[in-house]
Design a protein that fits this description.
Layout lengths: L1 H27 L10 H7 L3 H23 L2 H8 L2 H12 L6 H19 L12 H23 L3 H33 L8 H22 L2 H22 L8 H22 L2 H4 L1
Length: about 280
């Protein structure tokens, strides 16, 4: 029953986020460069109906993904939720009144096939362990350090490099956000409103706001060809690693682990192919 809820919810979250990303990038791309990484960027975008629609869909996507994480582990939900580029590409093709090319279809097939291979050999059970503060501290330190380095690099560059640096930082924060969502969802499921007495729901709000600002700054600095593939690669890989290291969720072992690694490589290859599509480069 839990898997029957988690899988469709994760796919629906991916679809909502895909539409949201397309709308947000179209709006953010017209914002002045001087507003990058500043709260004023969010204030400026908040006056644009297209961006507000995208944000509303992002919120819906986040709620749906939270529901998926309440019923399924990170190692199951995030690979599915990261397939948003598969939904975004047909949407962009429809908006530009053109058909998908053979290479675009091949890239989509590689990504979908890689995710399917990864999940096919995933162990059916996962740990219900709730990590304590000492489990979180090393993770928070690593993520904070990496985000600081990437943001500093973005501030010293421009164009695609800046968009990539900000997208990488956003992907890391989104992976952390997914882990916090998983923890908070478990708390609310088991303890109800008393979960508000724990730190995770409040950290979730802070990390989510920082990730939103970095993602919008990435959208503003360059095309989806730079930002979305990086986020789609870093977020699920980071979330799966966090799930295994912090939540002790199980990955495949022995020969099945090789299948999962090959599936991940195939999925990333598909994302790279889609990255070369004129649809996401414009």
């Amino acid at each position: 029953m839990a898997i029957a809820v988690a899988v469709p919810a994760a796919l629906l979250a991916a679809c909502c986020f895909a539409v949201a990303a397309v709308l947000q990038q179209e709006a953010a791309a017209t914002a002045p460069e001087k507003e990058s990484l500043r709260p004023r960027l969010i204030w400026s975008l908040a006056h644009r109906p297209l961006w507000l629609t995208g944000i509303a869909l992002s919120a819906v996507s986040f709620v749906i993904q939270g529901a998926a994480l309440a019923f399924g582990p990170l190692v199951l939900v995030l690979p599915l939720a990261s397939t948003d580029l598969l939904f975004a590409l047909p949407l962009m093709a429809w908006r530009r009144r053109r058909r998908l090319t053979r290479w675009e279809v091949t890239g989509a097939a590689c990504t979908a096939g890689g995710v399917a291979a990864f999940l096919t050999v995933l162990p059916s059970s996962a740990s219900e362990r709730r990590p304590d503060a000492w489990d979180w501290l090393p993770l928070l330190a690593v993520v904070a350090s990496c985000v600081t380095v990437l943001v500093s690099a973005g501030l010293r560059t421009a164009g695609r490099v800046r968009a990539g640096a900000y997208a990488g930082a956003a992907g890391l924060l989104f992976a952390l956000l997914d882990a916090l969502t998983n923890s908070a969802a478990g708390l609310f499921r088991n303890h109800g409103v008393t979960a508000l007495g724990h730190w995770e729901p409040y950290a979730l709000l802070f990390v989510g706001a920082a990730g939103l600002l970095l993602a919008q700054s990435s959208f503003q600095a360059g095309s989806l060809a730079v930002s979305l593939p990086l986020i789609d690669t870093i977020e699920p890989i980071g979330a799966v690693l966090i799930g295994a290291a912090v939540f002790h969720e199980r990955l495949a072992t022995s020969g099945y682990l090789a299948v999962q690694v090959l599936g991940a490589v195939l999925a990333v290859t598909g994302i790279v192919i889609l990255d070369r599509s004129p649809l996401v480069r414009t």
